[in-house]
Structures are given as C-alpha cells and as structure tokens.
From TrEMBL:
It comes from Gossypium tomentosum. Gene3D superfamilies: NAD(P)-binding Rossmann-like Domain, UDP-galactose 4-epimerase, domain 1. GO terms for biological process: lignan biosynthetic process. This is NmrA-like domain-containing protein. Belongs to the NmrA-type oxidoreductase family. Isoflavone reductase subfamily. Signal peptide: none annotated. GO terms for molecular function: pinoresinol reductase activity. Residues 3-308 form the NmrA-like domain. The keyword Metal-binding does not apply. Keywords: NADP, Oxidoreductase. The keyword Transit peptide does not apply. Pfam families: NmrA.
C-alpha cells in the first residue's frame, strides 16, 4: 500500500509544525490548511511558506466556510488536527466540530486524528474546575467523531518536555530554577514525559497502521516515565547544581489556585492531576489501546537526560 495523503490542520502551531515535518520526512504527500484568519500574522505565513519550500502543499480553507473545509478534506485520506486547547495560548477545541462535519460530508477520509496530545480525556471525568473544560470539550469532539462513524486514532502524548522537563515541572517558567525547586508532595508520583519531535514521529507512524485504527495510542516510553524527584536528580547530576527542595502539600497547592487568572487556575488543576494523582501512569494500557514505543521500537526516542543537555 502507498503512503496516505495527509492534511494537517493547525500546522503552524507548537505540535502541528512538528507533525508537518514528520509527515514530510516519512514521505507522505502532505497538505497544510492555510486559513485566511491568520490575517497579518507574518510569522505564521512564513512557517507555511517554509513548509511549501520543503514540499508541502498549502490548501486554503476556513472554519467559517464549510465548503472550503470539505474541498480541502476531499484531497487527502488522513486528517490530523493540532489546534490549541491550552488557555494561555488559544482554546479552540470545539472548532473541530466543523471539521468533523466536513469529514463526514466528504466521506473519503480513512483516518482522523483530532487534537488530543495531552492527558486522556476519557479518564478525566473527575477533573477539577475550571480545567476540566479541556477534557469535557475533547469528549464532545470524540462523541461527534464516533456518531459520524469516522475512523479515528486518539494520540495521548502526556507531558511535553518543553513545558514540563526543562523547568523541572515548575509552574510559570520554562527554564531550570537556579536555587530552589518546588516538589509536589513527596515528588515520587510517576509521570510520562515526551519529546515533542517523538510525538510527531509516533503520530505519523500510526496513521497507516491498522493496529491503531479506532484505538487510543499512548506515548509512554519506559525510560521517560519518571518521578519529579528523579527528574530533578537527573538535572542536578547534569548541571552540577544542587537545589533546595520545598515540598508543597496537595491542599496548599490547590489553595494557590486563588491567586491565578483563569489560565493559571487551569494549569494548577492539571498539575494537581498529574503530580499528585498520577493520572498519566496510574493505569495499565489495556484493550482498545496501544503504547507507541512498543508498537514502533525502531523509533529511537529521546530520553530526558539527553533532552535536558540543551539547558546546561
């Protein structure tokens, strides 16, 4: 079988541009939706033009123009949506319902990968307000996909290293702290960290794989399942810098939510589920699911020791 033609929606975004790159690298005929809504955002336009230079095709289409979406979808077999669902950037999860309707009408798509790439929303029915909206809206999109009988794969990428590793999982910063680090509880809850480039590679591997059809693909490479304490220890060994550890109880951490704006409150809630509950690793990957590093052992994924070297 030949490689599927792929349309990436949200291709100029944080994970989207990596997926475009991975799709091209794997030899897929790759299309990227160019939305007129970018207006005068020259950075996004230049990213799109760089994709074109690398061999991608740009397709104009708007979520405000149903026919343009249908026409775009008709040109491919696989659609991957990577629109942002985080409150500190933009929160557009439900816009995907328009894309689902376009895919349903086009009738030719053999695989749709909606914007997931974080925690598994199917396991987050108990999530705290206000952050639960992320999971509730992703489940609305899943319901629409399944009701439309659209073949799909849900990619659960857990914690992107760029947001959780370089900063030793500290809220409000992206680089390693210099003198002190806040520990969530005892810091011994297991967390799954992933390199964003690896997320893109695994995603593209899955699109033509019958094993992942109508399943959830978890990206939980075994060497990257670490506690926060282990992550800090790796950084201390790498940097030669010992940090003061300050433990925060679950109650105190949740109480801190009052001091944040909406985006910060969402972040606190999500961090609570990850670092206190262990929602990324407190279950076995069972029927109806696959684990990416087992499924594609040929992918040499980046270990967090190596990932952190750039920060030294």
């Amino acid at each position: 079988m030949g490689k599927s033609k792929v349309l990436v929606v949200g291709g100029t975004g944080y994970i989207g541009r990596r997926i475009v790159k991975a799709s091209l690298a794997e030899g897929h005929e790759t299309y990227v939706l160019q939305r007129p809504e970018i207006g005068l955002d020259i950075d996004k336009l230049q990213i799109l033009l760089s994709f074109k230079k690398q061999g991608a095709h740009l397709i104009e289409g708007s979520f405000n123009d149903h026919k343009s979406l249908v026409d775009a979808v008709k040109q491919v077999e696989v659609v991957i949506c990577t629109m942002s669902g985080v409150h500190f950037r933009s929160h557009n999860i439900l816009l995907q319902l328009k894309l689902v309707e376009a895919i349903r009408e086009a009738g030719n798509v053999k695989r749709f990968l909606p914007s997931e790439f974080g925690m598994d929303p199917a396991r987050m029915g108990h999530a705290l307000e206000p952050g639960r909206v992320t999971f509730d809206e992703k489940m609305v999109v899943r319901k629409a996909i399944e009701e439309a009988n659209i073949p799909s794969t849900y990619v659960i990428a857990n914690c992107f290293a760029g947001y959780f590793v370089g900063n030793l999982s500290q809220l409000g910063r992206l680089t390693p702290p210099k003198d002190k680090v806040y520990l969530y509880g005892d810091g011994n809850v297991k967390v799954a960290f992933t390199d964003e480039e690896d997320v893109a590679t695994y995603t593209i591997k899955a699109i033509d794989d019958p094993t992942t059809l109508n399943k959830t693909l978890y990206i939980r490479p075994p060497h990257n399942i670490l506690t926060q304490s282990e992550l800090i220890q790796k950084w201390e060994t790498l940097s030669g810098n010992k940090l003061d550890k300050i433990s925060i109880s679950a109650d105190d951490f949740l109480a801190s939510m009052k001091g944040y704006d909406l985006a910060g409150q969402v972040g606190v809630g999500h961090f609570y589920h990850i670092f206190y509950e262990g929602c990324l690793t407190n279950f076995e990957i069972g029927e109806g699911s696959e684990e990416a590093s087992k499924l594609y052992p040929q992918v040499e994924y980046t270990r967090m020791d190596d990932y952190m070297k750039i920060y030294v």
